[in-house]
Amino acid sequence: MSDYPLLTSNTITLRQFDYFVNTVQLGSLSAAARRFGITPSAMSQQIDSLESSLGRKLFDPRSRRSRLTKFGREFFTQASDVVDSVRQAMAMGQTFGDGVMTVGTTPTIAQKLLPPLIYRMRLERNIDNIEVRSFTDIRELHSTLDEGALDLAVGPLERSTAKVFHCFGEEELVVVCHHSHRNSFDGSWKQLIEAPWIRCGANSDLTDILSREAGRAGVHIRFAVRAPDVSTALSLVEHGVGVALVPRMALHGSSRLVSIVRLPRPIRRELTVHARDKSPYVEKFLDAITDTELVRKFGAAGLFDIRRPKLESASRQQVPAQIGARDSAYIPEAKAQ
């Protein structure tokens, strides 16, 4: 005799579980029948069959399937879990890649930080199938991770519902202009608002940060050009179109036609890794991005700064003291594009 009769028996089906759970959730057998596009009598017959297989009543016979028995209440809790698990398993067909590690991040990190990191992971940690997805909207990146469509998310993300969280450094946001305009700015916001501004992305968090910083200075930014992403914004700056707020990381490999305008108060934000669960892929990624040698190389290349430890809550991980901060507007190994 099978130890798992439910898996071999034809008397109970997942459809019957679904009918029962929806009837309880909607509070009406007729409403549940309409949801599934069947007649109430057909649904009633399926629930009768379920009760017959269980050998117990799920609904009080006097309530016309509107009130659960004590057993029915207990069974509903278990049946709901079964239905939810099946739905999640079916959803894997849309989000699961066979042996694929899916990383969501910003376009700048996808272009500048991930390539050397992925090279190291393929070389040393035997991960050969990696998908990188870029998001200009941080909110969309958050929601895509929460939906389970990503193994992990990397970027300037705030705390979320993710079970795994690691802060691996800080990035500086800088105002950039064409090098011929460098002497036109002293770094004050009152002077910067006179320049034509380039907006990065329709829903970019960079726009929110720029508006916040300008608001603190009592000024309002007016955008002359809207670029789809940071890379396009930098190209517009290189052609002398205007100024833009961009991650300093984006300047790695940019042409010498771009200069940084020093702000009175630097703008910095944390770079973090978020994951819903600590899977083998996530563990390997964390091992790579916390590798001391690799982190030092990233810092020396100006990709990000290693954040100085602060007294924080126990749930937030600390990182080593800052090294390799760059003062030059350009990175020595940068090449003209």
Automatic annotation (TrEMBL):
- Claim: Transferase is one of the keywords in the record: no
Q: Which UniProt keywords apply?
A: DNA-binding, Transcription, Transcription regulation
Looking up Pfam families in the UniProt record yields: HTH_1, LysR_substrate
**Lineage, broadest ranks:** Bacteria, Bacillati, Actinomycetota, Actinomycetes, Mycobacteriales
Spell out the CDD domains in the cross-references: PBP2_LTTR_substrate
State the coiled-coil residue ranges. none
Describe the location of the HTH lysR-type domain by residue ranges: 12-69
Keyword Transcription regulation belongs to the record: yes
Instruction: Give the record's family classification.
Output: Belongs to the LysR transcriptional regulatory family.
The identity of this protein, by name, is: HTH lysR-type domain-containing protein
What InterPro entries does its record include? LysR_HTH_N, LysR_subst-bd, WH-like_DNA-bd_sf, WH_DNA-bd_sf
